[in-house]
Amino acid sequence: MTKTFEEKKKEVLEKTSMEFRDAKEAMGPMQKLMDNLEESGLLRPHQALPVIPGYVAQLVDYTVKVQHTIPSDIIGYFYFRNEQFSIEDMNLPNDILDLEKLSEYFKIGLHRFEFERACIIGYKSQLFYLKNKLTGMYLAYDGMNDLYEVWETKAHKFTQQEIGSMNTGSYEQIEVTE
């Protein structure tokens, strides 16, 4: 049996609220968030997952994993950072999160919505092509640990995490826009 969008939405709300000590307390804000996302057009049935940078994906994973954490509270940490408290006061793991980059990211309103959507419906990691600065050719991967150069049409799409683990000195990152 295939579930309708409304059934799936209700299931997500119930599952999320169960993670809180007082499910009734959590259900109100979560329902309001879901309704607002749906009304604004940011949440639709069979909607593509938001594409977010790796450093934001780390925060999404942290937010989803840690109980009693609501995405809008996390955004509030960054929004009021300079007025009420500093990065050190955020109680976020600054050893695994790039808090300065996240602070810049959340200055853009659409990014805040994308973060909340990613916490609720999941996300796709931002992908990049690697282009050789000298030859103009792109890096490809054969799936067996072999890298080689090809023209753009056969280029491999790499995540930021994959790129970070490679020696990419003569390559420039080009964001995949498709």
Automatic annotation (TrEMBL):
- Top-rank lineage group of the source organism: Bacteria
Pfam families per record: DUF1642
- Which InterPro entries is this protein grouped with? DUF1642 (IPR012865)
Q: What is this protein called?
A: DUF1642 domain-containing protein
